[in-house]
Amino acid sequence: MTQSDTSGYQAGLSVAEVQNLAADQPITKLSSNENPFGPSPAAIAAARDALEGANIYPERTDAALCQKLAEFHGQGMQPEQFFSANSGVEVLSLIEEALTEPGQRAIICPPCFGAYTGSLLKKGVIVDKVDLIGTGFDVHVDGILNAVTPDTRLVYLCNPNNPTGTYFGADVLDAVLDGLPDHVTLIYDEVYFQFATEFDLPDALRHVRDGRNIVIVHSFSKAYGLAGMRVGYGIAPERIAAQIRKRKRSFHLNSMGMAAAIAALDDTAHLDRTVTNNTAERARLSEALNDMGFEVARSQANFVMFRCPEGKDAKTLTNELVTHGVMVRPAFDLPNHIRATVGLPDENTRLLNALKSLQDKANP
């Protein structure tokens, strides 16, 4: 879709593609959970250095990145327990290719990341759904375990969850893992883990070291600001990681992306700046939305999710906001909820002002 033929906002569009909908206003993009500070300066420098050798193929393997990831995570983790891919979504795809066959089944827990279903269906995997429960969008542990069949191969849990931002503790993770039979692997999507500053997330690495059937999914797109580089990685017991690694293409990551990712891991100051802003602004944004009468989910991610006003759905509100120069997106699986990225203070204020303007128009 090009700018000229865009008649209404759709999730996933770029700033250029919606500029015509906002007339001459600048666009504040709060729709894709990107890092508002951009990449680490160290990552940019590393990518620029690597660009000078862009005429040369990158290393065939990701050994250097996996070694760096093992050192970064520590706790006795080994390079053989890591594998990388061209984005977190490709990490999921590699897992599915390695651990499922057409006609087998996987369990997801809506509302959840929309890519789970699309990726599974492309591989001929049957998708079973066990909804999150209650106003807190809690994991339905018994529901998941009761939904497992002899043909089930994968269960997906996201923590903090996308699109709700909600989270769960070690008791839930342990209960699911302990209840799953040996033929099922848990996909533990932890892409937003760096932003969970007010709650202790489970130590999922412990389960990897113990050899449990678990694959952890991480990405450099969010906290590290490298969404355009498309670098994701998985962490799993060596026997599972080896199965998944066989599905990778040679030269699956470009030289610039690998160099930037390795450098980003060392720039703790940039990560701290990102997380500090997110923690403060997430609280401010959530409180302000609550004060305006919106029902806001408790978030530990770099976004907040809120329910639309009575009588208005997410698609309508999203389209109205883009006319005010603010891009958000309808939440996956929830037609009456909006997911908005936590941006810089002025960006979040612009979202709040746009919502206030719409409220005033609806209630003159």
TrEMBL record:
One GO molecular-function entry: transaminase activity
Pathway entry: Amino-acid biosynthesis
Family affiliation: Belongs to the class-II pyridoxal-phosphate-dependent aminotransferase family. Histidinol-phosphate aminotransferase subfamily.
InterPro entries in UniProt: Aminotransferase_I/II_large, HistidinolP_aminotransfase, NHTrfase_class1_PyrdxlP-BS, PyrdxlP-dep_Trfase, PyrdxlP-dep_Trfase_major, PyrdxlP-dep_Trfase_small
Keywords assigned: Aminotransferase, Pyridoxal phosphate, Transferase
PANTHER family the record matches: HISTIDINOL-PHOSPHATE AMINOTRANSFERASE, HISTIDINOL-PHOSPHATE AMINOTRANSFERASE 2
Domain of life per record: Bacteria
Domain Aminotransferase class I/classII large residue range list: 27-352
Protein name as catalogued: Aminotransferase
EC id: 2.6.1.-
Cofactor: pyridoxal 5'-phosphate
